[in-house]
């Protein structure tokens, strides 16, 4: 199974990119993982929030393939602890899907079309984080989940 993380906009903090890359490299031992960054939409000042969500939504949907299992990282999604997330991943891997896709939306969330394409929603926290930080937190949690599944000492129970 391949795991993809789709995110809107680039990360402009080199420190965050360095940390994200460290976890991406660690993940190579467990899973085929890719981070797909959709460039920021141009001229957003001339767009309403709804128009911006719609345009971002079309770009997100353009990255999806038939047969993908799509999980939105959304504040209204189900919250799991790290062990629960690892169990969720195990179920996805056991289901035989080819690609599990997690999506980080833009600053105003997702268009209705993206919500319709999604299979479920997960929340990383009840708190709100910047989109740039979510990439790091998610990538670290993905790595942590695989170490839990392999019973490796990274996660302390």
TrEMBL record:
GO cellular component: cytoplasm
Subunit structure: Homodimer.
Family matches, as Pfam families: SPOUT_MTase (PF02590)
Lineage: Bacteria, Pseudomonadati, Bacteroidota, Flavobacteriia, Flavobacteriales
Top enzyme category: transferase
This protein's name: Ribosomal RNA large subunit methyltransferase H
Superkingdom: Bacteria
Cross-referenced InterPro entries: Alpha/beta_knot_MTases, RlmH-like, tRNA_m1G_MTases_N
The protein's role, per its UniProt record: Specifically methylates the pseudouridine at position 1915 (m3Psi1915) in 23S rRNA.
E.C. no: 2.1.1.177
Binding of S-adenosyl-L-methionine, residues: 73, 105, 124-129
One GO MF term attached to the UniProt entry: rRNA (pseudouridine-N3-)-methyltransferase activity
SUPFAM superfamilies in the record: alpha/beta knot
Location relative to the cell: Cytoplasm
Similarity comment: family membership: Belongs to the RNA methyltransferase RlmH family.
Keywords: Cytoplasm, Methyltransferase, rRNA processing, S-adenosyl-L-methionine, Transferase
Reactions this protein catalyses: pseudouridine(1915) in 23S rRNA + S-adenosyl-L-methionine = N(3)-methylpseudouridine(1915) in 23S rRNA + S-adenosyl-L-homocysteine + H(+)
Signal peptide span: none
């Amino acid at each position: 199974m391949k795991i993809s993380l789709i995110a809107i906009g680039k990360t402009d903090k080199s420190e965050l990119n360095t940390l994200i890359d460290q976890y991406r490299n660690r993940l190579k031992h467990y899973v085929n993982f890719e981070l797909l960054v959709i460039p920021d939409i141009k001229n957003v000042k001339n767009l309403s929030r709804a128009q911006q969500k719609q345009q971002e939504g079309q770009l997100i949907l353009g990255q999806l393939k038939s047969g993908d299992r799509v999980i939105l990282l959304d504040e209204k999604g189900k919250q799991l602890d790290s062990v629960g997330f690892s169990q969720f991943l195990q179920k996805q891997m056991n289901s035989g899907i080819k690609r599990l896709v997690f999506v980080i939306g833009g600053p105003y969330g997702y268009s209705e079309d993206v919500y319709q394409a999604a299979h479920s929603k997960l929340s990383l926290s009840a708190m709100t984080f910047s989109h740039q930080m979510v990439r790091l937190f998610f990538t670290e949690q993905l790595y942590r989940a695989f170490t839990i599944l392999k019973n490796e000492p990274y996660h302390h129970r």
